[in-house]
Amino acid sequence: MSHYPRRHFLKITSLASVGLALSGATRLAATYDLIILSATPAGIMAAVAAARLGKKSLILERTAYLGGLPANGLGATDIATRGATGGLFLEFVDRIKNYYIDTYGADSQQVKDCSDGYHFEPSVATKIFQDFIKEHPAIEVLTLRQFNFEPENLSIRNNRIESIRVINRTTQKPETYSGTFFIDASYEGDLIAAAGVPFFLGREGKSQYNEVGAGRVYKYWAGPEGEGSTYQEDNAIESYNYRLCLTNNPANRVTIQKPAHYNRDEFVSLIEDVKTGRHTGVQMQKLTPAQIDENEKRVAAGQSPQVPGMPQGIARLTNMVKLPNQKTDANNQHLAFLSTDLPEENWPYPTSGWQWRDQFAQRLREYTEGLFYFAQNDSELPEWFRKQCSEWGWAKDEYADNGYFPRQLYVREGRRMKGKYIFKAQDAQAVGSSGRPPLHSDSVTASHYALDSHAVRKREAGRVHLDGFLSYPSQVYTVPFRVMVPDAPIENLLCPVAASATHIGFSTLRMEPCWMALGQAAGTAAALTGSASVHKLSIKALQESLLKQKAILVYSPGIDVHAKDFASKQLASLK
Fold it and tell me: Whose CA is closest to 452, among 474, 472, 466, 436?
């Protein structure tokens, strides 16, 4: 293992020697076939898949809610080729569409805006996930259960996790739960850390795997790499934000208030950007002196500058995708130097305890509220811009118990487990004359999204964009089962979310459709493994079970999961 940089992973020498006593804990009698950390979409789908195979699951969720990011603003599904990912993810999409049809009518605007179920309101995603749970009595969900990733909170004997200890956040007392199999479905990768599984942090350099976009890179959006790109490895973590649910419907709009800890100085660079039209897109390379002069005249006359590719109005702050009922999924604006991401400050997050994480989450919330308050109210901004921004506010029928603000921040990347296979950029890009990425014989799902990373550093003078904010094209690819299997002797643990990948490889795996599919595969694998070792699981048996569940292991246009020869064609394609 010497070829892996030491900074990238942590490990313990022997899992077999660890048999930790959980002294002082309230020990509960129930034993589960499967214990899942976090009620993310991956965790929920793991439980559903196991339940449909007759297994009893327990999901331990730290918050009072379930559903992860889709229930917290990520309503514009990130998938580049619809139909590439099937199984429970496609069932989720179909349920979304049917909800809007049943509620508003097949010809309604809401059905049109749900985009065949791929676009949805946070509250609707929550309902659909709750429905999945209610339909399966074998699934138990305990909320407000906090797992701290210190090793003493797991009991491990003979390379098997036997039990997990969590803190009941209501009573502040410890509770212990025993299980046959365990799945880490957390965005942070806390369970693998406690179990001593090696993991990666930061960015690999280009010299390690020769990946496109690896290391330190400054890149025009939709354009070439710029000056300052060194491609060197570092410990940087891509930025987090909140996926915001905004509306310009006055009947459902809540005015954005000035946060308690407002720091105007954080946002003043936006003034010059708005007045000049400057952005990070490739179009800035072609801006002529004559255009610059003309824009100075327009600004002096109280008008908006005209710069090719420049987002208009509030879109300078956030990239918005339309959702049903006049709402949006508002993400960070990739054409902006200043938006809802907060680079650099999140670097400690993956390996920090929950007290630090909660403080950062509050800091990011107030930063986000402050950004919108500044844009709507600061007198140094042009009046036309403030007016455009003031048309928008929080949707008052979402997150009403949290000040209309998402309850969970977008952890794009935490720990990345070192598994039996490390997914890299090349696994998502076409090779040779085939026109497609490498086929993995142990594929458990197909998926497709660009190699897409957000910034790791704040604005730097003279740079064309923020460090690490980049996107490169990919093709529909296959995801091997091995990315979920720890590169450690532990026998009853899988990790579908903090999966095994480089920073660039992870930048495409980290989309919820892929995570749902990996969760389904993990739950299926747990059900098939039982008390045996997951390292000895029959891949053929796993794939055959997934195909019965209409999962897509390898994609081809026009694929029909209901065709009689669907399964046989899938297996033949992987050979």
Answer: 472
